[in-house]
Write a structure and sequence with these properties.
about 5% strand, 3-stranded antiparallel beta sheet, MetI-like fold, two-stranded antiparallel ribbon, elongated, single chain, mainly alpha
Length: about 425
């Protein structure tokens, strides 16, 4: 006989099963989670550093076969050799060793007539190797732009600077792609085109790349702030609700005084002598963000501590810590879980608002609010407003649908025996 026939599911399993039946919330959670995982791995998909380079350097390397004309068993200048191609993995070297190849390593000392320092320009290198047609190639990420680089200069029409004055003069050889007799230069910001799906910002940086990395920062910021705010708020609310008395009376008065401190003014004052950073903003929102959940947890502990199972735990000699967090807290999590999505919405909106006002993350950190701020002074750059707002609206809409499903699934009336 099956002994599990009469075994009932826990309330948590019933709530999770109820949540899955709310399709719009369940699928919104899958979409948001999948998108966030993609953003966390965006380094491999949205980046200007090559995944792999097959490169023949046209010089003799130790170990390559050569024709030893003078039989001295070493390669000498002028002796022919088999130039074996080498395989390089620049992105993995950059991630795991924090190193970049120098531009000269791939023969890119000069690009468009200008000396290049630092890492190679892999998109141009890819075109150069393609033009040589000698079997070398570059494999780029899915979207070969990163959120920090200026991407427009490479689109300028090539020319030969005969007098070395750094600009194109009429009469100098020019690759005139559109046959207009002039050298066309791209200046930021540019609207969406076949190169940049969402255009570029006022610094010539790709908007889609910055929006994707901005999504990663926004969600990570919201999760971190909500987690630590809830840890503080639950601890304080549980303590006040469980012990009550004078501790609760004086504790609430202190919290009310503390909550009256204006958050925005505090940020403005601190930003005058401290440069805002992700860590500083997270810390400030954690310091101010725990108050709201404290009231809900306090109320739940007041309601639960008078029940029989709490009296039984105390009679058995359980410590206050065990009674609070092992017995009462699992039965007081409904408001915590229900309001968590709304906390994420508030944290994302706070970060975007601070970035827009100039008190948030500092350039060149990718940020939706910073993109919108760029367009504020020139509304002709519609793409700097529309695309960040689309990202923001869709993200908040998905979280709202999730919060609706969580609220319905965790409604205590659904599984109550007293209905």
């Amino acid at each position: 006989m099956n002994q599990n026939i009469n075994k009932s599911d826990s309330i948590l399993k019933k709530r999770l099963r109820k949540f899955k039946t709310i399709k719009r919330a369940y699928y919104s959670l899958i979409i948001l989670f999948s998108t966030y995982i993609f953003s966390l791995s965006a380094t491999f998909f949205v980046n200007s550093t090559a995944l792999m380079v097959k490169y023949t350097n046209n010089v003799y390397d130790l170990g390559e076969e050569f024709v030893d004309l003078n039989n001295n068993k070493v390669w000498d200048e002028g002796e022919s050799h088999v130039d074996e191609p080498q395989y390089y993995y620049p992105l993995f070297k950059k991630i795991y060793k924090n190193l970049d190849y120098e531009a000269s390593f791939f023969g890119q000392e000069f690009i468009k007539g200008k000396k290049r320092f630092g890492k190679p320009h892999y998109r141009i290198l890819k075109q150069q190797l393609k033009n040589k047609n000698n079997g070398d190639y570059v494999i780029m990420p899915l979207y070969p732009f990163d959120p920090y680089e200026e991407v427009l200069t490479e689109l300028d029409e090539d020319y030969t600077d005969s007098n070395n004055n750094g600009i194109w003069d009429i009469g100098e050889p020019l690759i005139d792609n559109n046959n207009n007799g002039l050298r066309d230069e791209y200046r930021p910001p540019t609207v969406p085109d076949r190169y940049h799906i969402m255009g570029t910002d006022s610094q010539g940086r790709d908007v889609l790349a910055r929006a994707i990395y901005g999504f990663r920062i926004s969600i990570s910021f919201a999760l971190i702030v909500a987690t630590f705010s809830y840890l503080i708020g639950i601890s304080v609310g549980a303590t006040l609700g469980y012990f009550g008395g004078r501790l609760d009376l004086y504790g609430l008065r202190l919290i009310e005084i503390y909550a009256s401190i204006p958050f925005l003014f505090t940020i403005m004052i601190l930003s005058t002598f401290i440069r805002p950073s992700l860590m500083l903003l997270s810390l400030l929102l954690i310091i101010f963000g725990w108050v709201g959940i404290t009231y809900y947890v306090r109320g739940e502990f007041y309601r639960e501590k008078s029940k029989d199972y709490v009296s039984a735990a105390v009679a058995m000699g359980q410590s206050h810590w065990n009674v609070m967090f092992k017995h009462i807290l699992p039965n007081a999590l409904t408001p915590v879980v229900t309001y968590a999505p709304f906390a994420l919405i508030g944290n994302i909106s706070a970060l975007v608002s601070l970035d827009y006002l100039g008190f948030g993350l500092q350039p060149p950190t990718p940020s939706w609010g910073e993109l919108i701020n760029q367009a504020a002074g020139n509304l002709q750059n519609w793409h700097l407003v529309v695309f960040p707002l689309i990202f923001l609206a869709v993200t908040l809409f998905l979280i709202t649908l999730i919060s609706e499903g969580v609220r319905a699934a965790f409604d205590p009336k659904i599984h109550s025996r007293l209905r």
